Amino acid sequence: MTPDAGLPASATTTGDALRYCRTCRRALNSKTASSGRVTYHHAAELRGAVSDHAADPVPLTELNDPVMECDFCSRPDPAWTYVCADQHTPSLGPAVGGM
Predict the structure, then answer these.
(1) Cβ(43)–Cβ(29) under 8 Å?
(2) pTM of the model
(3) Is 90 buried (19+), middle (13-18) or exposed (0-12) by CB count in 10 A?
(4) Using CA atoms, how far apart are residues 86 and 8, in angstroms rounded to an integer?
(5) Distance CA 40, CA 33 (A)
(6) What is the distance of C-alpha 12 from the center of its chain?
(7) What is the pLDDT of residue 12?
(8) Three-class DSSP labels, the chain
């Protein structure tokens, strides 16, 4: 069995839809608001860290030398790449504490 379970290639699996940061060449995560507005974030920002630059999204196919690292441990040259379905998380209002 192939890692993609034999599914045909699509923009999501070929890199045309995968966004990386033009500045640091690392993968970006996207968030889509209910308004349809899409914003991009570095993985470190989602874990509470602060990036030294704003995300500058570019398709993976436009980078000559992307930084490939594990999403879980940040080690270089991951052995596997998983392309997952979009996660939809509804917002129920302000966070606890009014933030």
Answers:
(1) yes
(2) 0.64
(3) exposed
(4) 18
(5) 11
(6) 12
(7) 47
(8) CCCCCCCCCCHHHHCCCCEEECCCCCEEEEEECCCCCEEEEEHHHHCCCCCCCCCCEEEHHHCCCCCCECCCCCCECCCCCCCCCCCCCCCCCCCCCCC
CB 41 within 8 A of CB 28: yes
What is the number of other CB atoms lying within 10 angstroms of the CB of residue 67? 13
**What are the angstrom distances between the C-alpha of 66 and each of 45, 69, 86?**
19, 9, 22
CB 63 within 8 A of CB 25: yes
Are 28 and 66 contacting, i.e. CB atoms less than 8 angstroms apart? no
d(CA 32, CA 86): 10
Count of positions (residues) in the chain: 99
In the chain, which stretches have pLDDT less than 50? Answer: 1-13, 99
